[in-house]
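Minutes, project huddle
Topic: does the predicted pose make sense with zinc ion bound?
PN asked that the exact inputs be recorded in the minutes so nobody has to dig through chat later. Recorded below.
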Amino acid sequence: MSRRLGCELISVLLSLSFAMIVREQSVCAPHPQAIAKAFHWPTGKRVAVSLSFDDARRSQVDRGLDVLNPTGVKVTFFVVPRNVKQRLEGWKRAVASGHEIGNHSLTHPCSGNFPFSLHNALENYTWEQIAQNVDGANAEIQQLLGVHMVTFAYPCGQKFVGRGRQVKSYVPLIAERFLVGRGFSDEYFNDPAFCDLAQASGTVSDNLEYTQMVNLISRAATQGSWIIFAGHEIGEKGFQTTDASALAALCKYIQDPANGVWVDTVENIGRYIQQQRAGRGK
Ligand SMILES: [Zn+2]
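Predicted holo structure (tokens), as shared on screen:
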């Protein structure tokens, strides 16, 4: 073989292998735009936002409904039945106003490392006990408010029972029973094309300024995500409190069509995601 022919052969082989590498890459790593196009929010919307509040704290109905209702924004309240009983008329008003009521368990078990949960510790729970706790809340809320709850928020954002080699995730139990299970204080937003609805992320709204909440939404919008805010008290600035005036301003921001935000309950956005995925065969 002449030297020139050899060089030409090497050059052909090189370009062939380059083409194969390019082809290989296109199979393994879809172009980012292809991923973005796989999921569509409703027309004109770039990001989805849900507002949620946990524990059925009194301030949610005593103060929160008067902040939220005039804005028309519907939120999700993840309730504990014993707290609902303390403001039953207020909670009936929340239901009549179109807000969603979600399950937050019967007795709010968390790790026993929280002093308030030492005698109701997830480390000491079995799978059967957590199932009874979750189902018990559904039965009580059905009786108190006539609502069948379809979403869940993990108390303290914790998703396990037991300890050591006997630890079990109770995410599958929530997946069997609910459309969405929300965590707490998570560091990422929900990718609607990918996220596991049984452990959707929750972003803390307590103690945030209005601009901090808007910045979080703007960041989520760059990824086309779903952000689920999670708060506790609604009122003046303080421990575990979503600031009422910041909340009122936020409701205005998320309802301004120019901002491309779809705001709705955890159930409604969860259903939309489920339907979009079903529509494309996943
Ligand atoms: Zn809680």
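Observations noted during the meeting:
- Residues 12-30, 32-36 have pLDDT under 50 and may be disordered.
- DSSP finds ten helices and twelve strands in the chain.
No decisions taken; revisit at the next huddle.
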